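#struct-help
A.M.: can someone run this one for me? Single chain, 297 residues.
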Amino acid sequence: MRRAADRSDRTGRSDRLRILFLGDICAKPGREAVVRMVPDLRRELGLDFVIANAENSASGYGITPAIARELLAADIDCLTLGDHFLDRKEVAGYLDEEARVLRPLNYVSQLPDGQPGAPGKGIGLYPVGNAKVGVLSLLARTFMKPVDSPFERVGPGIERLLRETKVIIVDFHGEATAEKLCMDWFLDGRVSAVLGTHTHVATADERILPNGTACITDVGMCGGMDSVLGMRPDTAIRRMMLSIPLRLEPSRKNVRLNGVVLEIDPASGRAKSIRRLDVADEPPVREPDSAGQSQKE
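D.P.: on it. C-alpha cells below:
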C-alpha cells in the first residue's frame, strides 16, 4: 500500500478547497476499493481533503482499530461513523485517542454523575496548508436509535469550529428524508455542507441552498452495488422473508465508490459547487463460493 502523504503539506488554493466525501464504506469489498482508488482520485481530481463514512467497514457492522488505520493510511483525512460506531467493542479506546475518527456528536458524552459517556469525539478540526477544515458527525433520530436531538447539539459544535474555520462539513447519518432536509435548511448559511449518509442509496437532489450550504439527502455507499445495501441479495431476501436474523454476506459484484466532490471558498465557507461521484472499481471481482466469506469481510 502506498504511504499517505503528509496532509499538513497540502496548501490548497487561495480561492477554494476541493473536498471529497465518500458514502458508507460497506465491508471488505468497499474497503479494498477505497484503499485502491482514493490515492489516484486525490491526484486526478486535485483533492485537498477526503472524508469517508466508515461505520459499516467491518463486515458491514462497525469499525475496528486495524481497519481505521488501513483507511487513514490510504490518504483519507477523516473518518465519520454512525449508529453502528460501537458495534466492535475493541474500538472504544481507539476512538478516545484518534482525532481523525468521529462518532456522532449527539451521543451523551458525560453522565449526570460525572461518569464518562460514549467514547470518542463528534467534531474535528484539520489543517490543510494555510486553511482548516472542520468536520462534524451527527445522528438523526427518526427510525433510529434514541440519542440527543441533533438540532440542539449541532449549534454548540458549530460555534466551537467557527472559532478556527468557516469551512465546516456535516455528516448527517439518518434514515428519514424529511429529517435530513430539515437539517439542510436549518444549517443553511451556518456550515459549508450537510451530507446525508446511512441509507446506502445515492439520491439525485444535490444542490446549494440560498445561503451557500451544499447538501444532498444521501451520498450513497462504497461497495458491491449488485446487492441489497451492499449485502448479497440471496441472503438478504431470505432474511426479509423469514424475519429471522440470518447473517448477511457482503456482495462483491459491481463494486463502486459513491460520494460527492465539493468546492468550498475558504474565506467565506460557502460552497461553490457540489457534484456526485460514481466510479467503478476496475479490478475484476468474483462472488465467493458456496462456503461463504471470511469473518474478516
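A.M.: thanks! The chain has one domain: 16-280.
D.P.: also worth noting: The two ends are 19 Å apart (CA to CA).
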